[in-house]
Amino acid sequence: MSEATGVLAVFDNVEDSVTAIERLRAAGIKEITAIAPAPNHELEHALHKKRSPIPIYTLVGGLTGAAAGFALPTWTSLVWPLVTGGKPIISMPAWVIIAFELTILFGALSTVLGLFIHARLPRKPGARLVHDPSFTADRFGLWVDGPRRDEAAGIFRECGAVAVRDRAEEVTVAL
Amino acid sequence: MTRGRGTDMARIIRSETHPDIASYGDVNRDVLKLLARPGRGYFIILGVVLAVLALGAAAWATQVVLGIGMSGLTNPIGWGAYITTFVFWVGIAHSGTLISAVLYLFRARWRQSIYRAAEAMTVFAVLTAGLFPIIHLGRPWIFYYLLPYPNQRLLWPNFRGPLLWDVFAVGTYLTVSATFFLVGMIPDIAAARDATTVPWRKKLYSLMAFGWRGTDTEWRHFTRAYLLLAALATPLVLSVHSVVSWDFAVSIVPGWHTTIFAPYFVAGAIFSGLAMVLTIVIPMRKIFSLEAYFTDRHFDAMAKMVLVTGMVVFYAYMTEFFIAWYSVETPERAAFWNRAFGSYWWATWIMLICNGIIPMLLWWRQIRTSIPALFVITIFINIGMWFERFVIIVTSLAREYEPWQWRTYNPSWVEMAILAGSFAWFFMFFLIFIRVLPAVSVAELKEVLPAPVSGRDRDGGGGRGGAYSHGAITRGPEGSA
Lengths: 175, 481
Hints:
- The structure holds 2 protein chains of 2 kinds.
- Chain A has helices at residues 14-26, 41-47, 54-79, 92-118, 149-158, 168-171, and strands spanning 6-11, 32-35, 128-130, 140-145, 163-165, 172-174.
- By secondary structure, chain A is an alpha+beta fold.
- Helix content of chain B is 68%, strand content 0%.
- Chain B has helices spanning 8-12, 24-32, 40-66, 81-105, 115-136, 162-184, 186-195, 199-209, 216-249, 261-287, 296-326, 330-341, 345-357, 365-368, 371-398, 413-436, 442-448, 462-475.
- The radius of gyration of chain B is 25 Å and the shape is globular.
- Chain B starts with 7 loop residues before the first helix and ends in a 6-residue tail after the last helix.
- Chains A and B meet through helix 1, strand 2, helix 2, helix 3 and helix 4 of A and helix 2, helix 6, helix 7, helix 8 and helix 9 of B.
């Protein structure tokens, strides 16, 4: 959706935006992007999108961290065995702390990695994307791409959009 | 037939915790106005802060050139003001994560306006704390010996040592809290990017917002990731000060070798951190007229948490004294007798009064909601918590094992200058932060404010719209009722 070949509607409230989504979906237009200043349950519910797969990244990252946290001290202790007080070289209780910290570290970093991959961030600074500065303030946007955009524009107007734009230079903003 | 925003219906729907914030637009206006060129007063304060920082830097330079003998450290008091200050700052950091992550998981309804400042405080406090183990090294240029890095001699650090656990705990804490801070700020920086007209700000915010627009895909993954980061940060915050406490508890020094240390330190950390959040937020609220964002309710809730954690800390003090007596362990008894009545009695009593007695004033609601009273109390707590660590570290080491090696430790001017410098270092970051990045979360406040509703009579869509605005009123902005 970086090249603008669709129609962008600006709404000044959520429920008009939700109504528009429902009517678009009823008309068979399912590829809708909603832009909002804050996460909104009504919008999310209306869009019927799948759950985010980010937890898988967290789990894999966390398990990798745990494995690394046990492997690193074990390996380094075996490379240069330093026996103190006849205690085991592989001192599991001490390793638990390292493993715990690395679980958190790797889990957190891979969560962010997952976020960046799935939300398609970061974008190139200055790239032109479908947006309007008011969408981070108090306006709600809907963007429909593709051949049925004229139909979508009609629905947007009927639902009370404060602006409906379809010219490429109007719908994108250099971020 | 009314039209557009600002209708009667829109006006009566208000957030329970932030009744004076009318709309989404107000949040953007009030928060983003901080991101402007500051006045003269700001630069004067920043100048003073930088001067104190320069003093601290000069003191450290003196120590690096002339040696660790410039500090007051002697045998057997190998840990003094530096380690005290390290533990102090790590502790300060904790409440930021508590407010941003733990209260997020508990769905506390008042955290939204305060958490960004607390989170920033966390990151800056860890940055400050991280300096101290390095300053404490006589030869700071070989600090990297602490890290497990591949090297020619195949020498690796000792993973059985608590000091190395500390490296991992504090290192992870710095990384994760900075990540949480910067990722959580992306939508707000995007709001700042879309609002600013100043070229350097535009450039900076474009870079830091990563091209965020607020699409449903972005929000869906973002809210999920944020929840998971909060879930990871919560056990982390408990682990960090536990690991710091094991620096002491794993040794056999009388006064340190106790199992109570981990929870005792964690409670103390949160206690001191909450106090520091209040110390910072109170002037910030005043200077930037953010009264609508930090209400009595916020201060009341914060003060209650200070009171609870303060009582846990005081209970831990009493338990330590009680167990020292009850164990009939002579060295332990002597250590605690010495704490209260030995040569450092004054430090112990500062600690007990500031952390145990003064916070009891917070039982009164009038005091909890009185801003000047809270400000004064939190400053006492900050002082008390520094002395707590001083008492733990110095009184135990000064009367360590054999009486013939007992000594008295007094911090030197170098240590005091570096302590002052650490406050300057911390406040320097905070002052810059407040004018460069959104110090109050824009997006999260909007989450708890009622979303804009139309309130207009539409043909066809009217029933639908009516149902939604009705829902927004009865359900309330924060899902109450």
